[in-house]
Amino acid sequence: MVPTTNTSESIRSTNTCVSRRAFLRASTALVALGVLGGVSSDSAVAQSGNQVFVGTQVTDIDTIDPLSGQSLGIQSFQQPATFIASAPVSDGVSVETNPFNLVAGADDKGAPGAVDVWSAAVAEVPSDPSIPNPNPGPLLLQYWNIQGNQQLTEFSGTLVNSHRDKAVAPNLINAPTVIAPGIPPLPFPKAIAEGAVLQGITDGTAVTMFVQGTTVDGANPFISRIDATRVQ
């Protein structure tokens, strides 16, 4: 079963909490548990030694009115999702420091409420004479710092670097966004802000992972849960 007490305490300690009601709704289930060079989940699936889990993502998202600063209400979204764990990635020089590489998210990246989590990725810095760059080639970008117990049956992490300055921010949420007064919020992909947290548990045959944080503009505090069963 999900360690709900530890999970809720960890998540409540952040300054991006959604309501307790939303968290409790998200935590009721039993658990068993690119841009520079075109990083994609398809390439991750093609790697050998991956553990692939398929299931469902449920995400509760609040929307803050930019004018009043008041909540416009919490919306819940559910969609098919995939969780992939593999060996830490490397660009040939540096190696991801996490115990495993994590790519998890909704299968339909354009679906309202879709959340994507990447622990690290290798992007390709182009060799372009018109763009001064002393180090073209592969570049390791680590986003999350993840820790786990010795058996890696439990893990947790913090988003420490979004790499938005490099225009490579695959940790995204397709969040309801206020476009103009009087118009209902429309889904728009936003980078997840640094400081987001995740916590998960697995027995090797199934996995559950919670992610909580907000968007970089602070307008969409959210909590997301993936429940998935191993297929590979």
From TrEMBL:
InterPro entries: TAT_signal, TAT_signal_bac_arc
PROSITE patterns from the UniProt entry: TAT
Name this protein carries in UniProt: Twin-arginine translocation signal domain-containing protein
Source organism: Haloprofundus marisrubri
